[in-house]
Structure formats: C-alpha cells, structure tokens
Design a protein that fits this description.
627 residues, alpha+beta, five-stranded parallel sheet, 19 helices
C-alpha cells in the first residue's frame, strides 16, 4: 500500500522473494504465467488473530479499527460461515496494518483450519492523495507495463470457491441473503453469474473448483441499470459482470496481469473491462491529462482510470510488487464537463442544469449561444464530440482567463463564508445524528437545537425560531430532527430563508440505499441505547420502539438536490447510516472544510475527533422525557 514504510515494507519484500522462490507458475495466455501461491495456515491464523484483537478493542486500540460481521453461506451444503472484515477508509494510510485488502472474508475448513475465502485489491489512492501517489514518486518507484482500466461505474462483486465446492459471491462487505426483501448487490451479482455460466454450459461448482485450484478471488463490477443506476449508462446490451481482476487469497497483494484476466473472462463468460496498456509513465500521464480535457474516452463519459503497475521501495535493488493508483477527474475538469452537458442541453432545447460555478457557467452559455447561432454546423459537430475543447478555450481566451482560475471563481462567495451555517440532518431514528451533533458542538463550539426538547403545539415554527436564536450566539447550528420527509425540509428551508437571508443550509443526508442493512443496524443501536432518549424508551417497550422506527423508515423520502424542496440546500453531504459516527464525523468536517475553507479552517487531528465522539457517546443524557 502507499502507507507502509519501514518494517512492513521489509517484511513484504522478504515475503515477495520467498513467494518467488516457492511458486508453481501455470502457463497461460500470451506466454504469460499466472502467479500461484498456496495459503499458509499459520500466516492466515496470525492475520485473523490480529484482526480479531482490533475488532475487540474497537476504537480504543489506538492503531486501527475493524468491524467483523459473520455470515452463513446460504448455498453451502456443509453450513459454511464466513467473516467479513471492514476497515475504516482513513486507516489504510497507516503503516503496519495486518493486511491492506479492501474487501476481505475469512473462514475455517471442516478441520478448523483458518483460510482466506475472498481477497479484494489493496486500497489504492488518487493522484496526489498520498506521498506515494505524487507523480514524482510514481516516476521514481514504479515500472511498467502500466495497465489502465476504466473506472466502471457499478458495484464490486467478489467470487471464490469454498472447500465444499460452494461458489461464494459477495459484495464489498457482505454475502447475499436470499431472504432479503430488497435484492442485495451480491444476489444480483449471483443471478448474472448463473445466467452467464448457463450460456457457456458450465456450472457454479466448476467455477468454484477452478478458483479454488488457483487460490484466487475473481473481482468483477456489476453494471446493470435495471438493478441500480449509476453515472454511466449500462442498458440491457451492456449490463453484466465486468471482470477486472483476479487476486491471490493471501495477506499480501498479488494480482493477475490484465491479459490473463481478459483470458479468464473469455473462458468463463464474463464481460471484459476496457484495457489500455502503456509502457512508459510519461505517456501514461499525457494520456490521462488528454482524456481529462474532454471528460470522455472512446465516445463515452469517463470518471477516471485505475492504473496497475509494479512498485518497489528500493527501485533497482529491492523486489517489485503489485501496486495500483487511480486518476479521478477534479476541477477544472468537472466544470468543463458541466459546460459540455449544458451546451448539449442548449443544442437540444432543454433547460441546462447548473449545479456549481453558476456565474461563470452562465457567462459561458451566453457566449456559446451566440457562437451556435452564428454557425449552424457547430451544433452538429458538437453533438458528435467535436469542437468541445475549442469552444471552451475560445471562451476562456475571450475572458482572458485560465480554466483553473475560472473554476476557483466562487460565484456564491463560498470562500467568504465564515458563519451562519445550519446543518440539517435527513435521517431516520438510530442513524447517529445526535451523536454527530454533540461531537461537532464539542469540537467547534457550535449550537445544537433538538426538536425533541420542544414540546407542545406548533412545533415546526418554534423549532425554526430556536435554530435562528441559536445562530445569533454561535457561528453554526445543528438543527437536530429527522427531517425525513420533504414537507419538513420545505418548512425549514422556507422559514429560514424568509427570516435570515444570508444563512446557508447544508443537508447531512444519511443515504438509505440498502434499506435492510439500515433497518438492522439502526434497530440494534436503539435497542442497545435503552431509555437514553427523550421520546423513545427502548428498554421499556421494544416492540413499540420498532414500530415507531418502521414508521420513519416507511415515510423516509431521500434527498434529491435536483428537485424542490431539496434544491434549496446550499450543499448536500452524503453519509452512510450503517457506518460508525466517527467515520461520518470526519466526512462532514472534511466536506465543510472543502466547501467553506474559511468557516472550517482545518480538519482537527484524529485524536480530537476520537475524543469528541467518545464524549458524545458517554456524556450525552437527554434533559427531558416525553411521556
């Protein structure tokens, strides 16, 4: 990973040489050899022990925290179970983790021997996100061939074989439970897999045995709009499982070269992921920057690339190991993409959607309108993706500006915002919103108004008044109620805007995509917390509480920033209700820092955030009981 230094790297290098020496190589496509290393039960046992210790210590371990979830494998004839291990994203930057796999499942054989059942890629980072992903470091420490794969836009699916011949199909952190009302990612993946194997006349057991023989996990992207839409379009002709990797099931990261992955995809009926192989790092950089210019490659929208190569801590001397980084488009390219979309809307007579960079985009559209009117050929060519860059550059030249300067022109003065921010959670019960509110007030001294503390009639206007009164005393205020329905958000947005024209309202949207997991996690939390809540005394009457929670989940209307009333929010920050409050706290702070750099001037150190959550969890007691 891009975070190991010192001892971990040395261990890894000695392992790499050990594996090189002991490996049986299988000849395969294009004369390439498929890497093979068998599992070492002692090594796996040590890994599981380290993970178990961290899971038991929780956040207190000081090192890293990991969440363990046990799943029964429904299709296993022997009743096999697997454990999923989930790290916090920010922990992957730490040295000396027992593994850097993102997506890891372990199990035990019938003789009780621990083994790795599924192994994802090592967590990889964006250009300039870590010291190792600076271009200078990449140039110095990596070697080609550089394999560039499009960042397909779907959800990741892991496939491997268990000892009893069962084919295990998982999403990033869970297995498919067929009793699930909503079709889970993994069971949707399994359905696609069954269909593709049927087409080529092979069985799930054959695939399970093949992967087990190779001691490997197949990594695919499930792209299917009928199941779940993402940014890029995948109609029925493009839907399916796109195979993009095969990893060895060992703690270290060893992955198949892409040509072998493509060969495996052909043999087993997977769709192939677009692949470009470039030998030289400077050519890689030039290619990526060129694609970023248009935001499109090969006639389709791209959100970025994953680049796979080999890296050494001691180039030319130490061994090289598999290493990935990613290239995701940032500003000004996101602004350029918006200009492109708006221009195409203009040409087809639709209303252009402007989300950010409002003022400069409106100026650009005024300019584009004139140019399109003056030259009828321009529109036709533009729709075929010709002349996009020229039109943009002509406009920038006309304004005598560079693209980066245009993207930094904050039309709504976000850079000048230093106060008057209202944080509005959109949540259901048990998502952790109050913990978040208490932690933020502890860290920054902001205000916190709880709807639960407002009793009697006409609560909504009195809630708004309390929030605005609090804003007189504090630079920001956490408007603590669920706001799960559009009408509640409309009320708050309308009332606030009428009484306080300069206040910014930022939605903290707890995304309820996987409703069954949200239900399970929030119920567990609320029942565990007992009577520590104004209106919900869980210890007293569990069924009643679950009934109240179900009502909220049933009424929950997700935030849609494109539509009324949610387009009234100045910003929306998406949070995961099943993640821990510590993780969500960091997401909120980082996003506020990015949106309003003079309001949240810097992200506090990890220890301060840990402390704030600990304080919120331990010290918060409601002052009021509703009967």
């Amino acid at each position: 990973g891009s975070h190991m230094d010192g001892t971990a790297e040395k261990q890894r290098d000695s392992l790499a040489s050990r594996y090189k020496a002991s490996t049986d190589y299988a000849k395969d496509a294009e004369g390439l050899t498929a890497p093979y290393v068998s599992q070492d039960p002692q090594e796996t046992a040590a890994l599981v022990r380290a993970l178990d210790d961290a899971a038991k210590k929780g956040k207190k371990s000081g090192g890293f925290s990991v969440k363990k979830t046990r799943y029964a494998v429904a299709s296993s004839p022997t009743g096999a179970e697997v454990d999923s291990w989930r790290f916090n994203d920010w922990d992957y930057k730490k040295p000396d983790l027992p593994t850097y796999a993102r997506g890891l499942f372990t199990t035990r054989t019938q003789h009780g021997v621990p083994e790795i059942a599924v192994r994802g890629y090592d967590k990889f980072f964006n250009i300039d996100e870590t010291r190792d992903t600076a271009w200078s470091a990449i140039r110095e420490r990596t070697k080609g061939p550089y394999e560039l794969t499009l960042k397909e836009n779907g959800c990741i699916i892991f496939i491997s074989g268990l000892e009893d011949g069962t084919l295990l199909v998982c999403s990033k952190h869970s297995t498919g439970d067929r009793s699930d009302v909503a079709l889970s990612h993994s069971s949707a993946g399994e359905k696609h897999l069954e269909a593709q194997l049927e087409r080529i006349g092979k069985t799930k057991e054959e695939l399970a045995r093949e992967l087990r023989k190779r001691n490997a996990t197949a990594v695919a992207e499930l792209c299917d709009d009928s199941f779940e839409e993402h940014i890029l379009a995948y109609g029925p002709d493009k839907a399916g499982l796109y195979l993009h990797g095969i990893n060895l099931n060992i703690p270290e990261f060893i992955t198949y070269p892409s040509p072998l992955v493509q060969k495996f995809a052909e043999d087993w009926g997977f769709r192939k992921t677009g692949l470009i192989i470039i030998d030289n790092i400077d050519d890689v950089k030039a290619f990526l920057e060129e694609v970023a210019e248009t935001g499109a490659h090969d006639g389709r929208d791209v959100e970025g690339f994953v680049i796979r190569c080999k890296k050494s801590t001691n180039p030319g001397v130490g061994p090289y190991h598999d290493w990935f980084f990613k290239y995701k488009f940032e500003e000004p390219y996101l602004m350029y993409r918006q200009w492109r979309e708006c221009t195409k809307a203009l040409i087809s007579g639709k209303q252009p959607k402007i989300k950010k960079h409002v003022k400069i985009t409106e100026e650009y559209l005024l300019y584009a309108r004139k140019r399109l009117a003056a030259d009828p050929k321009l529109a036709k060519l533009y729709n075929q993706n010709h002349g996009i860059i020229k039109l943009r550059n002509d406009f920038l030249e006309y304004k005598n500006m560079k693209g980066t300067d245009a993207a930094n022109l904050e039309d709504d003065g976000a850079a000048s915002v230093t106060r008057d921010i209202i944080l509005v959670p959109i949540a259901t019960i048990g998502c952790g919103k109050t913990t978040l509110g208490v932690a933020l007030t502890k860290l920054f001294g902001w205000g916190h108004i709880q709807n639960d503390n407002i009793t009697g009639s006409k609560r909504p206007p009195r809630f708004t008044k309390a929030v605005l009164d609090e804003l007189n005393e504090h630079p920001a205020v956490f408007a603590d109620r669920n706001n799960s329905m559009r009408q509640e958000r409309k009320q708050l947005l309308t009332d606030v805007k009428m009484q306080h024209t300069t206040a910014r309202l930022v939605a903290l949207h707890f995304v309820h995509d996987d409703i069954n997991t949200v239900r399970k996690v929030t119920q567990e939390r609320v029942i565990q917390r007992g009577d520590n809540h104004q209106t919900i005394q869980a210890a007293t009457d569990v069924n009643k509480v679950i009934g109240i929670m179900e009502g909220f989940i049933h009424r929950f209307e997700p935030c849609d920033p494109e539509k009324d009333p949610d387009e009234g929010f100045d910003a929306v920050i998406d949070l995961d209700p099943t993640a821990g409050s510590r993780e969500n706290l960091e997401v909120v702070i980082r996003e506020l820092h990015r949106l309003y750099p003079n309001f949240v001037k810097e992200v506090p150190p990890a220890e301060a955030m840990d402390e704030a959550i600990k304080f919120a969890m331990e010290s918060y007691k409601p002052d009021l009981r509703h009967i």
